[in-house]
Design brief:
Layout (H helix, E strand, L loop, with lengths): L5 H25 L8 H27 L4 H20 L7 H30 L2
Helix pairs in contact: 1-2, 1-4, 2-3, 3-4
């Protein structure tokens, strides 16, 4: 990637902050003590899905920024697999054991791994 414009730099910083926010939401939602029917928990679910949608939307611009980095492009493309898994779980809105277990044992670790991989390409450009 060439030298970033100020707009590209700000885009990457906001994108990275969004990645961190989704991880925090998954931490909160996978907490055994959280009641899925509580208003705050339901709001975190809704907000996390909105954030995931924003991440997916941002990938249009991210692909342009990393158009010459095949490794980064493959990592960006794998985000769709995570979204598919989230949809299969049923958005973990109910406080059922299988949904919470899926979040804790698969979705959250898969997201954290993916986030680490994409941040490997992003952080060098925004860590000043």
């Amino acid at each position: 990637m060439a030298v970033l414009t100020e707009g590209e730099f700000l885009f990457l910083k906001k994108y990275n902050a969004l990645l961190e926010t989704v991880e925090e939401a998954f931490d909160y939602l996978s907490d055994e003590n959280q009641n899925a029917s509580a208003p705050l928990t339901r709001q975190v679910v809704l907000d996390s899905y909105e954030a995931i949608g924003k991440i997916a939307e941002a990938h249009v611009n991210l692909v342009l920024l990393f158009e010459k980095n095949e490794d980064a492009l493959q990592i960006i493309a794998r985000f769709g697999d995570l979204v598919d898994e989230l949809e299969q779980v049923g958005h973990f809105e109910q406080n059922t054991a299988p949904e919470k277990e899926a979040l804790q044992t698969y979705i959250k670790p898969a997201y954290e791994n993916w986030k680490s991989e994409i941040q490997h390409h992003i952080l060098p450009h925004i860590a000043h």
